[in-house]
Every structure is written in structure tokens, then in C-alpha cells.
Amino acid sequence: MAVLRKLARPLLAAPFVTGGLRTLRRPETVAEVAGPVIREVGKRIPALAGDPLQLVRVTGTIQAAAGLMFATGRAPRLSALTLAATLVPTSLTAHAFWTVEDPQERARQRGHFLSDLSTLGGLLIAAADTHGKPSLAYRSRHALDHRHPVAAVRRPVEAAAARTVHRAKGVVGSLTGSLTGSR
After folding, report:
1. pLDDT single digits (tens) 13-57
2. Residue from 140, 141, 137 nearest 128 by CA
3. Cα separation of 2 and 173, whole Å?
4. Under 8 Å between Cβ of 122 and 80
5. Given this model, what pLDDT does residue 145 score?
6. What does DSSP assign to residue 74?
7. Cα separation, 13 vs 80, whole angstroms
8. CA nearest neighbour of 20 among 71, 86, 78, 79
9. Whole-model pTM?
């Protein structure tokens, strides 16, 4: 599985690295497409209102850096989540097929949009990949149990014993109830 990760990560990261670098070289072309969306989002979320050219440069930088980190295995879960977060607005902006009138162009943009959706799915899977090791949440939940093996065994045994006692009382109660009812 380690070989697959080493092969798959650079393949999944390549479009982000090349796209981010292309955006950094020529941000004007991307800012032209993203401008209307940035202005609409800026009306609703003032923190995101700003110069489209600057926001496009920041997005390109983030995509290139996170793509390189992901490709090389540096903080792969965080970089996969970062790439996924930048992919959503980029895809909604660049491949808004629902706004295109020409049927051929609409089909082409729909294909790009669906390709971005599949990439998003791959990034989300990569973000959840723990390399076969327990996740941080699992380790933190079970930290006390692993430090105290007796406590780890005692809790399930006590719970099973309590269930057995409860069932036994129910059986005894039903037997004594049937004995008193038959007299």
C-alpha cells in the first residue's frame, strides 16, 4: 500500500501544482473569470471581498504549495484538505456549466466539473487516510485504556457482569411469578 501512496499522491497533486504555477504566472486570465464570483461572494462575506487579482494569486500559491506538500508526503492529510478547500470555489467559478448557453461548451464544462468532483472525492479519501495507523481521535479516546491495561479489561467485564445479573434477576422474577401464580 505504501507504493500506491507514493505513486498516487504525485498524480493527484500534479494538476494543482501546475494550475497553481500557471495562475501565479498569469493571474489576469483567472481573475477575469473569477471576478464576478468574487464580487458576489464579497457582498455576502465581507472578509472575502477584495481585489480578484490578489485573491487569485493567493489561491494559486496555496494550491501549488499544498500540491507540492501532498506530492512529497509532507502533512498529507492537511494538504489534501487544503487542496479540497481550494478546489470547490475554483471549480464552481471556472466550470459553471449551468450558465453556458452553447450545448457543446456546456457539455465540455460539465465534463470538467465532474472531473473536479471526482478529484474532490479522491482528496477527501486521502485526507482520511491514516496509513493503517489509528487516527488521532481514536488514539486520544483510548489513551487511558492503553496506559492501564487492567482498566481496559475491567470495564467490558463489569458491563457484561451487570447485564448477566440483570438477566438473571429477570429470569428469577419470571420463575417466582409463575410459581406464585400457580398456587
Report:
1. 999 999 999 999 999 988 888 887 778 777 888 877 778 888 889
2. 137
3. 58
4. no
5. 58
6. S
7. 9
8. 86
9. 0.68
List Cβ neighbours of 147 (8 Å cut-off, separation of 6 or more). none
> Cell numbers of 25, please?
504566472
d(CA 147, CA 141): 12
HEC string of 16-56 equals HHHHHHHHHHCHHHHHHHHHHHHHHHHHHCHHHCCCHHHHH
Cell, residue 152: 481496559
The single-letter DSSP state of residue 135 is P
Query: Scanning the structure block, which residue is given the C-alpha cell 464552481?
Result: 92
Cα dihedral 55, 35, 113, 88, rounded to 10, equals 40
Torsion of CA 108, 110, 116, 117, to 10 degrees: -160
Q: Are 120 and 83 in contact (CB under 8 A)?
A: no
Alpha-carbon gap, residue 161 to 64, rounded angstroms = 57
C-alpha cell at 153: 479489561
Q: Could you give the CA distance from residue 118 to residue 91 in angstroms, rounded to a whole number?
A: 12
* Terminal-residue alpha carbon distance, the chain: 70
Residues 14, 74: Cα–Cα separation, whole Å: 15
**φ and ψ of 82, to 5 deg:** -65, -45
What average pLDDT score do residues 68-97 get?
A: 92
Classify 116 as helix, strand or coil: helix
